Amino acid sequence: MYDVHAVEKKWREAWKRDNLYQWNPEAPGKKFYLLTMFPYPSGDLHIGHWYALTPVDALARYLRMRGYNVFVPFGFDAFGLPAENAAIQRNIHPGDWTFACIRRMKEQMEPMGASFAFDHEVITCTPEYYKWNQWFFLQFYKKGLAYRKYAAVDWCPTCNTTLAREQVVGEDRRCERCDTPVIKRDLEQWFFRITAYADELLDFSQLDWPERVITMQRNWIGRSEGAKVRFPIEGHGGETIEVFTTRLDTLYGVSFLVLAPEHPLVDHLTDHEHMAEVKRYQEKTLRESEVQRLSTEKVRDGVFTGAYALHPLTGKRLPIWIADYVLMTYGTGAVMGVPGHDQRDHDFALRQGLEIPIVIASTDGHVPDPSQGAFTEDGILINSGPYTGMTSAQAREAIRKDLEEKGLGEASVQYRLRDWLISRQRYWGTPIPIVYCDRCGTVPVPEEDLPVLLPDDVNFLPTGESPLKFHEGFLHTTCPRCGGPARRETDTMDTFVDSSWYWYRYLSPHLEEAPFDQELAKRWTPPDLYTGGVEHAVMHLLYARFFTKVLRDLGLVDHDEPFPRLFNQGIVLGPDGRRMSKSRGNVINPDELVAQYGADVVRGYLMFMRPWDQGGPWQYGGIEGVQNFLQRFWRAVVGDEADPQPPQGEASPEKELELRRLVHRTIRKVTDDMEKMQFNTALAAQMELARALFHARYDGLYGTEAWKEATRTACLLLAPFCPYMAEEAWHQLGETGSVHLQQWPEADASLLEEELITVVIQINGRVRDRIQVPKNLSQEELEKIAREHPKVKEAFNGKGPRKVIVVPDRLINFVI
Q1: pTM for the whole thing?
Q2: E strands of 676-774, at which residues?
Q3: What gap in Å lies between CA 816 and CA 814, rounded to an integer?
């Protein structure tokens, strides 16, 4: 009788005692760095963690058996807002809560039997890790890639604090703590200049990534080629409003300008008559998110400033408005209103009663009707002075040259990508290593004084403000330059900084002299495969690419991309088809499943339930199918005291050959599927083999050489998926050494050649021909092949048979 829990406990302890999975970078074998996205320590592993991790472990085990020296580390992305919220709610230090969660998650991971290199663990909230976040910040600062400027944050006027995105709730954007309407407020904050690498980040030629991830990054960076145009401001002595446009051919169709409500020129331009209304509109806009402002369903409202600009080519007066559909964070924060040829401008002009000139006709000469909406395609210019009659492409070039001659425009490239705002007005993050001195200004902390430590003795205010602002010992320091009094920066870094380089640190997690061992990094990075969810397509993966390119330029690494190959796994949903949530009551607890079925069954089901890149709803019924498979495997390979004694070696040579053929076909199938990470079909092939072995055991094959080869191979193939049962069965067969240290089986090509047989084709009982087909072909496959035979097609005469009779491996008879 197979005692699942006793067996799994026995081998778990044995593997740990023997250091079975200890990584040695100098061990023989081709290197394979297998990296999976590290989790946030939320307190409990859920089935989604198992779904992400067990196939990674299976792949690592497979690769080791293929002779690779595999490095598959693990760690925790441990800084972040949830820990700080827990500190306030539970009156506990966020570090205590975080490490308690880590201990709990590691306890839950243990039954999985994962072969991760836990001795290379990285926990990002430890000083030995975040010291190097600070060191990187200083290197970025020296290169001009870290800088400080004013930027808008979400602000709660009642709590008197900034809010994270997650703390702003509801469509009307209220503070989750006090329900006060949230506004935008400008604060001086730190940025990384990721835009300096925008063009290089658009080069995906070295990446084997899912196309949807590349598309999402390309769209996020958003490169646009166009021109900058400067519109002189009437009555303001040479001042201009600069706009960026990709449609310079529509310049004669401009009938107004629109500024973002937060544009610095608004207060300067607005006349006294319109100031009160402009201020009210600005305050309203402060309560809106960018998503709300850009919504296609939003009413295009706005306010006139009372000021006018002049058209750079015609001198026409153009009213200057403010409207929330223009963002300060994109382009120049100003747009030229071309209502005849831009739908947003068209909607705005209709609402405000503004002129809608038409300056582009279709290529067939049709003049668009402005009442039917904006005509946004290229075409032929009309009503455009000297450019009338030109194509859109010709006009863009001609107008650009004329603007350049007048000093009122030039070609330009713009990006949707903004610089990376890394400041967080939070406690539980990496302190930014900057001090402010009244005499010396902004001063970086010397490298020898790192790390700037988070103080432990902090008091969390119910408002949620960072305790660093009020911690006298942290806040007040001395200036590294003049020795005078100075104040520390109280912002901490965005936690995406932590995850932008962690795979390098895995190689040498306790190194004190450098962020990572450069010699090891040169041999072992970039990782050969990175796995994780598609939800990280833009932020984490984009920041990691940026970081790697900066590290390359600092001379720390010798490659351009962090993850040449990426695989996105799917998501396990609740049984109701929705995302798992405690509030919905649809969370699947892996601990309960392991207690009921054992870890091997849970692992096997997670890999068998559907293709790994798809995910889908949890189905309880399916797990019992995997349980039945493993029970059949055990009874076939090892036997059970309740089963009858099998006969010894009475099978014919033909049956032995048939079994060997199946074994080697299975080797080929499982190997091919593992290379493609198609775990579900690899297991399906093993289920077929287990069924065949079970029948072969009592069909005279037990004890033959073919049987010994088949059972030994079955253990090897199962080992990556269900490591406990494979190990136990391996030893029950009398084999020595761990199954996980054995060589992966190789398929014998001579046994893969399919045995061909001759099948008779009959029509109405009369022989028409004979064909050669693989043995054991299914009725459906045989019928499909026979229907294509010329004599059968001729007999059918365009009609189908009334009946099809098949005698397997002998004949097929079509009754017509």
Answers
A1: 0.87
A2: 756-763, 766-774
A3: 6
